[in-house]
Design a protein that fits this description.
16% strand, 12 helices, 7-stranded parallel sheet, two-stranded antiparallel sheet, alpha/beta, single chain, Rossmann fold
């Protein structure tokens, strides 16, 4: 592909705002030693993470420090976009021992790989992706600082009147996906304890951007007049750029023994109220079905908020940006979050 390939340029334009590093992220990479590697860079958050790292390092005057993005790269345009953004790319299947063993070492590793959608049809592949791959990666990068992404889905449903599940809440495996995510955490923790690896488990609850996320799902349903199931009546979310910035800063929080941290926005958000707000912005009347259940997947991110402060993009800003994007017919990733599903089947 050429530098002016439209797909590449569109991806770069979409990532421009998301990957802008906050001052705290620039300060963080200025303090850390070693190169950086983003495993699973081809996923929905990987490009933002890798490009933010590159921009933060450049802003910190550390242009000689490398950022490498690793993925199977089923979408060639994503690889070209990263290369144009200054990120070195390598192709790797994380379930293949020889391919993982051939990866160069890095001092700082962000692990974003994994599988969620398609679990109901192919649960065995989800288990391979979410447990076997982490075992190979954890052994290979035993000397690195590792931030390994997980999910709030490892928690049980909690009462909606409360603040949500904090890091002391025992995990509960609702469905194959959540079970495999607990497995991923256990595998990373096992090898971290065995080798003394500095590890942080990053339990993320709904990153959102213009092309993907709970707010995008709601905006599209409102715009199309599709019914919105409010059985799962409350959610958390955080702007994807803020989530990535926190993940980078979590490299400094990686510890031995390992640490776990919830990451999401500070608010518990009503699905009904969000849809009504989007309806006003889109000149549509939302259509609701069901009634709010007394429990939902909610995370208490108090610990991460005390570490990093409030997100830079507030919910009202997100709603405005997403409504304008949907109204203009902007592109989406075409991957609904299925936040409303309460059986754990994805």
């Amino acid at each position: 592909m050429t530098r002016f390939d439209p797909a590449v340029q569109a991806d770069l334009a979409s990532e421009e705002r998301l990957s802008e590093p906050p001052a705290a992220t620039v300060a963080c990479v200025k303090r850390l030693d070693g190169d950086y590697m983003v495993l699973g860079v081809g996923g929905k958050m990987g490009a933002t993470m890798a490009l933010m790292l590159r921009r933060a390092l450049d802003a910190a005057g550390r242009r000689g420090i490398g950022v490498t993005g690793v993925s199977r790269f089923s979408r060639p345009a994503a690889r070209d976009m990263l290369e144009q953004g200054g990120v070195r790319t390598l192709a790797c299947d994380f379930t293949e021992p020889d391919e993982v063993a051939a990866l160069p070492q890095a001092g700082n590793v962000l692990y974003l790989a994994g599988q969620k959608f398609g679990t109901s049809e192919n649960p065995e592949n989800t288990w391979i992706q979410n447990t076997v791959a982490p075992a190979l990666v954890a052994r290979h990068f035993r000397d690195a600082r590792i931030v390994a992404f997980s999910t709030g889905c490892v928690y049980p449903f909690v009462p909606v009147e409360g603040a949500g599940a904090d890091e002391t809440e025992p995990v509960a495996c609702l469905g194959e996906y959540a079970s495999s995510c607990v497995g991923r955490e256990r595998v990373f923790t096992h090898y971290a304890r065995r080798f003394g690896t500095r590890l942080l488990i990053f339990r993320l609850n709904y990153a959102t951007e213009l092309r993907y996320g709970v707010l995008v799902d709601l905006a599209l349903k409102v715009q199309r007049g599709e019914p919105i199931d409010v059985s799962t009546g409350w959610v958390n979310c955080i702007w994807q750029g803020d989530a990535c910035a926190r993940a980078v800063q979590c490299l400094e929080q990686a510890a031995s023994p390992p640490r776990t941290l919830n990451v999401t926005g500070p608010e518990k958000l009503s699905v009904r109220a969000l849809a009504e707000d989007l309806g006003r912005r889109l000149d549509r009347v939302p259509v609701f079905v069901g009634a709010e259940a007394p429990r939902a997947w909610l995370s208490d991110a108090g610990a991460s908020l005390r570490l990093f402060g409030p997100p830079t993009v507030a919910v009202d800003q997100m709603l405005g940006l997403i409504a304008a994007h949907v109204r203009a017919g902007g592109a989406t990733l075409g991957r609904p979050t299925h936040f409303e599903i309460r059986t754990g089947e994805f």
